Amino acid sequence: MTPSRATRMEFDGDFYDLSQTLWGGWRFYDQIAPLAAAEKSADSAYVSNIHFWASGAWTLRPLQMELGRFIETDPGVTAVIGASDSTTIPGRWDPGTEYGLLDKFFRKTSAAATAPPSLSPTTMISTLPTALGTMTVAMDPILKTNSTLSINKGVCIRFAVNGINRGGYDWIGAVVFGQYALAFRGDGNAEIWEYGTPALGGSTAWKKHSSFRFSKANQVTGNYHQIICYPHVGPTGEKFIAFASANLDAPQQASAGLASTPGTRSTSGGVVSSEHLFRWDEIRAPIQDQSGGGGNVTTSAKLWILERRNVRAQWQVSTLVYAAAGSLLSDFWGTDPIDTRAVTLQSISRLPASTTITTTLYDGTGGAVSTATPGSAFYVGFDMTGPKTTTPVLWAYKTQRDPVSTLRSPTAFSLSGTGFRIQSGVSDPRTEIASVRCEDKFNAYPRLRTRAELPMRVIVTDSSSGTPTDIVLFQGTAISPLRTKLGKAGKRAGLGEWGSALTHPSAQWSQYQITAAGMWHRLQLVTLRTALSYQDFAYDAAASSSQIVGWKITDAIKRLLTAAGFPAAMQNIPDLAMRFRSGIGTQDSDRILEPSTSIAEMIVRLCRNYLGRFLVFDTNQGTYGKWTLVGAPTSTTALAAFVGGPTWSEGAPLLPGACLASYPAGTAPTFGRRESYLIAPENNHLVALTVVDGWGTGGVRVDNHLYNYKSYKVPSSTVDPDPDSPHYLGYEKTVILADPALWAGAAIGGWAETQKAVDFILFRLFAFTCMARERTRFVAPLLFITDPSTSRKRPLRFYDVVTLDGAAGWYVRSCTPRFDHDRQMTADYELERLVPYQP
To answer: For 211-267, how does the pLDDT look when each residue is reduced to its tens digit (9 = 90+)?
Structure first.
């Protein structure tokens, strides 16, 4: 039936060993330097001229963080929006000496309670007072800049209201920058407004976002107020405006992002600024995006100041000026005794023109790590520089020590066997197993009795084409070979054993029953030394994009396989475009595996849930076999054909027992009776869901549902289930896939992209989980086919397309070689096809 084949077992062949494990991880936001983050902007032994914002950004410190800093006198800086760049109503520019300041402030001089000369305000400016609500006294524009503020330009607002507020001012004034206005009430509250097209459509208008308290009510008048407004874009496209001041009080209302933090005092004695973080949220914003997207928070526009008509406050607005240089030290990375010479650094940052962030690895003694200085505990230093008018931004950094695999060659040995039973070519690599019997008469293979585990391969040499070709049926690990000792020490020849001592067979003559696990055994044994989270795949430095994008799923699979000890030479993972969504990895709960756990299950989950593919170990690829992905057939071209009963070739009858070579290439007869059965749908209601930015918004759920209407009566559906359908269950079986990695990030359009990701996964999984299947199984000769992608011979495996008695639509579910002799090699086959579904 199968002539020209010879089978052997090979033990202790070359294999790769993981000689250095994957180590490291990301530190995001305040995790970079928790002590420095707690003190915001105060200098200490571990931070200098660096500020930490509530959004998680680390930047050079704005000089205006220091109360009374003389920005006008700072060398080389002309940042004050003053008389040289403003159009004002009648007034004067005076130093704020009564508050200990030398910078000049504007104060109107027009008659109290009378309308000042007009500055020809735009509709946007003239409609703001009306939008703010009922006013006991009107509010007028008193100053506008001649030049425009550039996109995302930060400003510092300083003002003072003299006297005592006996009348209880409802409003003091407002500062308009970009499309936003920050309006100040007499009770100490500030409100954030935005001008643009309402979210529900209609004419452009002002809409309120949120409010915070910039001062205690009894300290509004007679005091000096300083508020920094810092617009910036988050790592995944979030739009933030941070309002910070040493005098900022607790918020009246939390913003869409983090709530304000109260002012505290640092250990060094400096006042630490508190902050109200405003976040523009696409889902909840009352105004459509006005910034043009693409990394913008504010628009380019002139700055305006409006003031209550019967108030003469002193006003000054300056663009933010940053320290020219600053430094930050991370916390220690534990005491893991690793060679820090192998550690590399990567960061998530934004670097405007003329700004830099330099990272340096320091060992536990404070010296820079070099090739000559291996260390254990270590930390990371960040040095930032900029031109003062802008700043670099640091969001996260990653330390990483790459895994290293080494090829081992322990000297292979081979022997023949019998009773082969090999469960392979299946969708689940965890079920791959082999069983075989062999005998060692001469003690030529002592490792079989002295070792509990040995690398093992089952190889068939096929010479049917005239050229011997090795085909690997199985590769894995022989585990605890079961030995039956047949030899006897001191046995002698002759009647009554009176002759000379026998050397044949050996005193260690043994028979072995060998059970071997497939390559999954190796894959699942490798554990992590550090936690693995979605953060590890949140940022693809190789991607050419203005926004942070996550890793490709296939790149993550390659990374995990490498971490498990399988180098690139043992991987055949295609380069597929699907990526992790950019919103992943924002919080510790995104962790997916704890230290000391296997990564094998994670790899399988990524393959199935995201790619709709299955991970298999192809023993016939490369020199040592390769992990590869197989997916639902994309071609209807059959790789093999199975026929039953007599068949004819050129008029001659061919019987099932005839030589396999008598059949057309790729065709085999089936033996005996076939068995068939139906598999009910695992589920009939599929739910996929995620949370849009749980960190920032508190969690907005995005989900979708799919139903198998032939399986049960779906509530509110007009479709009745079909009791005669293979899909029919009669009751609901629901499966829910909740995955935080489906969030697409906070950039404009993130919600819609998140919905697309949910929908994609939903339709991807429906055929796997919610449709009935038909299966059939039988015995047939062990076929070898030529793989269309590698051109190498191999047995059939899961998802290979075949025909059965000429009928299409079948694919292989499993192929289990089972034979005792090389000339009679058979296999148990199980085929499957989906039952058509049309609601």
So the answer is: 998 888 888 888 888 899 999 988 877 889 999 886 665 433 333 333 333 333 233
Alpha carbon distance 510, 441 (integer Å): 6
Q: Which residues lie below 8 Å from residue 511, measured CB to CB, with a gap of 6+? A: 437, 438, 439, 440, 483, 484, 486
pTM: 0.78
Cα end-to-end span (Å), the chain: 47
pLDDT tens-place string over residues 579-602: 876 554 444 444 455 556 667 888
- The separation between CA 829 and the C-alpha centre of its own chain, rounded to angstroms, equals 39
Identify which of 1, 813, 8 has the alpha carbon closest to the alpha carbon of residue 436. 8
Neighbours of 766 (CB within 10 A): 18
Range scoring the smallest mean pLDDT among 167-176, 695-704, 765-774: 695-704
Confidence at residue 253, expressed as pLDDT on a 0 to 100 scale: 33
Tokens of 344: 């590399």
- Beta-strand pair 640-643/667-669: parallel
Q: Which two tokens stand for residue 33?
A: 């330097």
Q: Which of 553, 448, 397 is CA-nearest to residue 29? A: 397
Buried b (16+ CB within 10 A) or exposed e, 394-425: bbbbbbbbebebeeeeeeebeeebeebbbbbb
Beta bridge partners of 476: 456, 518
Q: Which amino acid is at 538?
A: A
493, 499 contact by CB (below 8 A): yes
Residue 167: which of 198, 134, 136, 124 has the closest Cα? 136
- Which of 489, 505, 80 is closest to 303 using CA atoms? 80
Interatomic CA distance for residues 712 and 684, integer angstroms: 8
CB 561 within 8 A of CB 603: yes
Task: Give the Cα separation of 429 and 551 in Å (integer).
Answer: 25
- Mean pLDDT score of the chain, rounded to an integer? 82
**When comparing pLDDT for 46 and 795, which is higher?**
795
Distance between CA atoms of 172 and 186, rounded to whole angstroms? 6
The whole-number pLDDT of residue 586 equals 45
Provide φ and ψ at 608, rounded to 5°.
Answer: -80, -50
- Dist. CA 591–CA 585, nearest whole Å: 8
Size (the chain), residues: 839
- Report the alpha-carbon distance of residue 505 to residue 339 in Å, rounded: 53
Tell me how far apart the alpha carbons of residues 829 and 826 are, in angstroms, rounded to a whole number: 9
Query: Which tokens belong to 15?
Result: 């294999």
Number of H helices, E strands in the chain: 9, 55
Residue 655 burial class via C-beta count within 10 angstroms: exposed 0-12, middle 13-18, buried 19 and up: exposed
pLDDT in tens, 628-659: 999 888 888 999 999 985 544 444 554 555 56
pLDDT score of 529 = 58
Spatial distance between the Cα atoms of 421 and 434, rounded to a whole number of angstroms: 6
Q: How many other CB atoms sit within 10 Å of the CB of residue 769?
A: 17
Q: Give the integer Cα–Cα distance in Å for 275 and 57.
A: 13
